[in-house]
Amino acid sequence: MTSVDPTGTVTSPRGFRAGGTYAGIKTYGDGKLDLGLLVSDVPCTAAAVYTTSRFRAPAIEVDRDHLADGRAQAVAVNSGVANAGTGARGLADARRFAALAAARLGIDVRDVLVCSTGVIGEFLPLDKIEAALPAIELSAEGGMAFSRAIMTTDTRPKHGAVRVGPYTIGGCAKGAGMIHPNMATMLAFLTTDAPVARAFLERALREAVDRSFNLVSVDGDTSPSDTVIVLANAMAGGEPIAEGHPLAGSFQESLEALCIHLAKAIARDGEGATKLIEFTVRGAAEEADARRLVRLLSTSYLLKSAVHGADPNWGRIVAVIGRSGARFEEESVRVALCGTEVFAGGRPTECDLGRVAEAMRGPEVTIEVDLGAGSASATGWGCDLSADYVAINADYHT
């Protein structure tokens, strides 16, 4: 299994520099940093995956345009203002944001990607951005500052790195609320010094996202800004990794491991969350059934509330299974909470629910379901539901 270094960042791979500053854009959460830059010393092969929402932020339109050639060199990100739902002016502002970053970095504007996250319906304060960009100190040690600059209601930065032979993949993400497949109010940035062919990079990213960020949920909501970007600058040398390359499988596995690490960090830091929940569904007739059930379990407010209260009410799980549409026979279904089987053969097991409740008081809770209908499986992540979630979102805008 690939080991993720939790201290790694987007600047762990060779040839990447980053930094962040406070421009006065963000008025909530961690107000110390709200503007970040990530740049490679050389142009990169690049790919991205975006929100499936038809209500898309202007930054996504800019990035789609700039990535038409599969190349990019830098990413500029602001937090506090999403620049979504801002019409023609918002699109012009996103383009201006890219131009300002390009001028600061001395590179072609089409090699700059932009992302904005925060309150929907507010325009970018371009005057503040233009004034603050020169203050960003770019360095190979600036990955942590960049990770903090992209945060909104996050309580902690989310980052990591993995090794693949002679290469490194680094990454960071933000997200704590409005999190649900297919992607959510989250941004993720991945970097590597490996040489990677464009077609392979695009496929590898799609598959990694599908097994990580597309199986994490905090509250069942999504946003217009969600973006995952990967930059490969080839600065570690070697032949491009493509289908059939000796490291192709390892690269895919490592990229996926890093994305899962970041996805779990998002769930663990869900707004108001006190526990990370890992959902595993096995024995499904097909993968679609397993993935659907994972998503339904992770968004059941009754189940999330029970987990928050350390209540081993497995009936909440069985109820979700029953409405999931997945194929199964009742007597074949098995359910386990924190490693203890609580339901099997169509009836409760003779387990000690007091001990299960005690296990559920920890920071991580596992829920396992075996449908007994096939060999397909899926694993996803979510968090409990606390009163703090309501408090955070009741005054998020005002």
Overall strand count: 14
**Beta-strand content estimate:** 25-35%
CATH topology of the largest domain: L-amino peptidase D-ALA esterase/amidase
CATH class of the largest domain: Alpha Beta
Radius of gyration: 21 Å
What is the approximate shape? globular
Number of helices: 11
Helix content: 25-40%
Examine the secondary-structure arrangement and name the CATH architecture of the largest domain.
Answer: 4-Layer Sandwich
Q: Write down the domain tally.
A: 2
Distance between the termini: 45 Å
Mean pLDDT across the residues is 92
Spell the H/E element sequence.
EEHEHEHHEEEHEHEHHHEEEHEEH
Specify the biggest β-sheet: 8 strands, mixed
Assigned CATH superfamily of the largest domain: L-amino peptidase D-ALA esterase/amidase
Sheet/helix structural class:
alpha+beta
What does this structure look like?
The protein has 398 residues and is an alpha+beta fold. It has two domains: 16-265, L-amino peptidase D-ALA esterase/amidase (4-Layer Sandwich); 276-394, Ubiquitin-like (UB roll), CATH 3.10.20. Helices cover 30% and strands 26% of the residues. The protein has eleven helices and 14 strands. The protein has helices at 58-66, 87-105, 126-132, 143-149, 198-210, 248-268, 287-298, 301-308, 315-323, 353-360, 387-394; strands at residues 16-21, 35-50, 71-81, 112-119, 158-164, 167-174, 187-192, 227-232, 276-284, 334-337, 340-344, 347-348, 364-370, 376-383. The strands form two sheets. Strands 1, 2, 3, 4, 5, 6, 7 and 8 form an eight-stranded mixed β-sheet that branches. The protein has a six-stranded mixed β-sheet with strand order 12-11-10-13-9-14. Strand 11 and strand 12 form a beta hairpin. The longest helix has 21 residues, at 248-268. It starts with 15 loop residues before the first strand and ends with a helix.
